[in-house]
Specification:
The strands form seven sheets. An eight-stranded parallel beta barrel has the order 23-24-25-26-27-28-29-30, surrounded by four helices. Strands 13-14-17-16-15-18-19 form a seven-stranded antiparallel beta sheet, with no helix packed on it. The chain is globular. The chain contains nine helices and 32 strands. It is of the alpha+beta class. Bound molecules: (2S,3S,4S,5R)-3,4,5-trihydroxy-6-oxo-oxane-2-carboxylic acid. (2S,3S,4S,5R)-3,4,5-trihydroxy-6-oxo-oxane-2-carboxylic acid (GCB) binds near residues 405 and 554.
Length: about 575
Amino acid sequence: MQSANFTANIHERGFRSPFEKVKATSETLVSTDGRNLRSLNGDWHFIEDWYETALRASWCFEDSHGEPADFDWDFWPVTKVPSVWNLTKPELKYFEGLGCYMRTFDQPKTDGRLFLQFEGASYRTYVFLNHHYLGMHDGGSTPFTLEITDAVQEKENRLMVCVDGRRDPERVPMDNTDWFLYSGLYRDVFLFETPKSYLSDWYVRLLPDKAHIALDFSVEGSSEGSAVFSIPELGVNQKVPFREGKGNAVVEARPELWDIATPRLYHVSLAYGEDVLSDQIGFRTIRVEGTKVLLNDKPIFLKGISCHEDYPEGGKRSTESDRLQSIKDAQELGAVFMRLAHYPHSREMARLADKMGMLLWEEIPVYWAIDFQSESTYQDAENQLKELIRRDKNRASVVIWSVGNENEDTDARLSFMRRLAKTAKSDDPSRLVSAACLVNQRKLAIEDRLMTYLDVIGNNEYYGWYDPDFAKLPRILANSHLDKPVVITEFGGGARFGNHGGEEEMWTEEYQKRLYEKQFAMQRSCPFIQGCTPWILYDFRTPRRMNRHQGGFNRKGLIDSDHKRKKLAWQVVHDFYHGV
Ligand code: GCB
């Protein structure tokens, strides 16, 4: 890969293509559940590489080309990982190029295998260790694993990571979004060790009869053998054979069910030789019957709220207390369900939701008009979906996979998203599949060809905001003959916190409050509406919102962008959810 002639490389337009041959994907993602993780967070050297010279001129393959060199990894300023670079320095706020990171670490000799894991880096990441290229990853919100066993040394390992935050019409999401596309190594980076042959994936779930638990697992490095599956509190301790690297079992067990009021979790483990995966797992069922959503066979109205991953201090980098606050705010509102829009939020969010009894909708950024004609865009979207499912499929809180948001009903989009819906079903038959669809404006009805492939129909409508004619909403509901549950996945309007005025005056808290009152009055009487996730819990950053009230924020939050000050509409949603 290294060119002997660096000047030649500089003139080559195809400098990225050799890297694209080695990709980390859902297939290479290794489960880290219960593993001993060694953090590589902390201080890293960092520069913004506006002209992508690190890749063009192969900076990653050497420490220096000899003087006069244009790079100097060890002398670059230090930044904290995890963080989004956009919030580290004012001049990086809108930087969308290549960011180069480097740190060193020692690694005691071991007989096992060593892996690097990145929990989230946006958007494309190229990873090098000791001047060897390890591989790249596409997708800004899902984790990936790279094996480093053969490249690692005992002292002074040099880990170089180039993160490419370019917006691009062929990516997922594309170059136009209504949120801020933060970049950088903004989630945890760590190392872990496994034996020569190890457990790479496991999937544990309660079967619909509520009397059996199913297990599927995969082993790398050995094709035959057996593992021990145990759930001590349920008396499960069973040897399960595997062949061709795959094993599965169904065991009899009647767990206490995980529910929103009683989020019971069990200690579950799978041991194969020296290798052990373990986790706290809840058991529940979720299904649809006619227009009802049934949690543990009981109908549930999904009193929800939408939420971005955008925190006042860290942007897309969240802390445990940030996440805790979001779930607590949602619970105080009366919500039992959160729509984590529009991309996978951190893995820890679902873990916390498991503990706190919050149901989740998780989504991939198949947003607006992504390139539905392109097979490589499809592969990217599908890989993100598979990585998300692989990461969170043992989380009781996650009940819905969403394959996209607000996409026009064209033939290309239908075949693209139908494929995604089928993939979600085959990778995880135990959950519901949905997408946030649009109203058919010509027929004034909730109608979309994709609905055939969904279990739950998500619908975004902005009556009272983008379309001021509220009278259309009851007509739309009357015109829609649906035999599946609908969740109104978005509705709402903008209000700047502290901006007061009349109920007819847009951008005031009073206008937003009135809008919610009218929306609920219409939604509550519709039999197929089985949930809603108002847009949105907090105001969030977005470069496309630049009027005097917005100032770079979408102001539809029930709470201000400081995540503290509640607007008047908060109380309306609160009262509706608390049945006042
Ligand atoms: C939508 C989009 C969402 C936007 C929202 C808005 O329909 O799905 O991403 O932020 O509308 O505020 O316009």
